[in-house]
């Protein structure tokens, strides 16, 4: 049998078979740029041995033969209901865009640092290799549903967000680690419930998540090489901010998605497990983590999610834009207050935890 070329019906196309990228919002994957000169001046000597060990592990490239499509893909997918196909394509697009944005950032860093900081440049080159492989595999999966992304078009038209290097480190470290926990939790669920594995890409998640884990370890070691990123009062505030930002983004985005339902998963329980595990993992390097075990933490996130769904419904309504803006103001203010309460909750100071290896 051959792969399906039947397209989900509700997607806008740039040209036949090429999907127009999803509209950018606060919760969609972002493309980043940074201060390359500041990065080039970084002294890695404080933690150079660990950096070298992680880079050596990435050189081995354990997954170099993993992302190879096999006979499981050689069939039609027309039996999948249209709504399910549309939800799945949206997941593939979001994942591909996220991986591709990482590739672009890491590739540019490796190019800009090649002559000024060769060790760091090699690390980013290896990261970009993995991200390119992931993005290509996801984009090929989209083609099984009659669509793909024009990654060159995406490069040229996507907005780029400038982050200082330290903010790149905090956010990307968390993105990689939360990616690890997401992939492994999905893989474990589908191993236990194979009837919900609607497409063979999920067979690859076990090894795939190890790439995410190694990438997170790279940024862990990189932050340890820059003690000021972890050891002063401002570092605690920023770590706290990025933990909440990454957790809230995932939680709100998943509340508006039907993706986990088609896999037979409860998205709320899934998100709680992923957040709790990622928070614990972050405690190995961050000086401070969030107290996500307190019931009020997820109660407030649930209320934020309810507000967010109101904004989604408003965006899809036919109400005039000017009126939407007025109607949405109290909803946005309500979300802001709840997020501020979450940020101000007393965190857990990992520098005071007995037995924690720093």
Structure description:
A two-stranded antiparallel sheet has the order 1-2. The protein is globular and about 55 Å long. The N and C termini lie far apart (54 Å). The model is unreliable at 354-358 (pLDDT under 50). The chain is mainly alpha-helical. Helix 4 (118-143) packs antiparallel against helix 7. It is 62% helix and 4% strand. The protein has helices at residues 36-40, 48-60, 82-112, 118-143, 151-157, 165-192, 205-224, 228-231, 233-255, 259-262, 267-282, 295-316, 321-344, and strands at 13-15, 18-19, 31-33, 160-162, 288-289, 348-349. The chain is built from 13 helices and 6 strands.
Attribute tags:
two-stranded antiparallel sheet; single chain; 358 residues
Structural class: mainly alpha
> What is the straight-line distance between the termini?
54 Å
Radius of gyration: 21 Å
Question: What is the helix tally?
Answer: 13
Question: So what's the overall shape?
Answer: globular
Biggest sheet descriptor = 2 strands, antiparallel
Total beta strand runs: 6
In short:
The protein contains 13 helices and six strands. It has 358 residues and is mostly helical.
Give the SSE layout:
Blueprint: E1 13-15, E2 18-19, E3 31-33, H1 36-40, H2 48-60, H3 82-112, H4 118-143, H5 151-157, E4 160-162, H6 165-192, H7 205-224, H8 228-231, H9 233-255, H10 259-262, H11 267-282, E5 288-289, H12 295-316, H13 321-344, E6 348-349
Parallel strand pairs: 3-4
Antiparallel strand pairs: 1-2, 5-6
Helix pairs in contact: 2-4, 2-7, 3-4, 4-7, 6-7, 6-9, 6-11, 9-11, 9-12, 12-13
């Amino acid at each position: 049998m051959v792969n399906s070329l039947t397209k989900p019906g509700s997607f806008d196309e740039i040209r036949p078979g090429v999907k127009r990228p999803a509209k950018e919002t606060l919760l969609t994957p972002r493309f980043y740029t940074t201060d390359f000169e500041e990065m080039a001046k970084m002294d890695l000597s404080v933690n150079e041995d660990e950096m070298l060990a992680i880079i050596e592990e990435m050189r081995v490239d354990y997954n170099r033969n993993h992302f190879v499509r096999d006979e499981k893909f050689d069939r039609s997918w027309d039996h999948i209901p249209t709504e399910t196909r549309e939800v799945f394509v949206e997941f593939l697009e979001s994942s591909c865009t996220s991986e591709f944005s990482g590739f672009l950032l890491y590739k540019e860093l490796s190019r800009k640092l090649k002559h000024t900081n060769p060790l760091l440049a090699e690390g980013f080159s290896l990261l970009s290799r993995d991200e390119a492989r992931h993005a290509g595999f996801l984009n090929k999966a989209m083609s099984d549903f009659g669509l793909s992304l024009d990654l060159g078009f995406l490069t040229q038209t996507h907005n780029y967000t400038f982050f200082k290097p330290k903010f790149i480190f905090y956010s990307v470290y968390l993105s990689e680690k939360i990616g690890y926990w997401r992939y492994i939790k999905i893989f474990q669920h589908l191993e236990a419930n194979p009837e919900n594995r609607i497409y063979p890409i999920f067979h690859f998640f076990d090894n795939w998540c190890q790439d995410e884990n190694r990438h997170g370890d790279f940024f862990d070691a990189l932050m340890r090489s820059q003690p000021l990123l972890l050891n002063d009062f401002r570092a605690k505030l920023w770590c706290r901010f990025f933990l909440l930002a990454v957790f809230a983004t995932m939680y709100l985005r998943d509340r508006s998605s039907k993706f986990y339902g088609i896999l037979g998963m409860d998205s709320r329980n899934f998100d709680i497990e992923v957040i709790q595990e990622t928070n614990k993992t972050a405690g190995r390097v961050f000086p401070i983590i969030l107290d996500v075990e307190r019931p009020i933490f997820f109660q407030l996130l649930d209320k934020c999610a309810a507000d967010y769904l109101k904004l989604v419904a408003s965006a899809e309504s036919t109400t005039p834009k000017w009126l939407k803006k007025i109607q949405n103001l109290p909803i946005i203010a309500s979300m802001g207050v709840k997020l501020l309460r979450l940020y101000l909750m007393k965190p857990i100071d990992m520098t005071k935890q007995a037995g924690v290896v720093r």
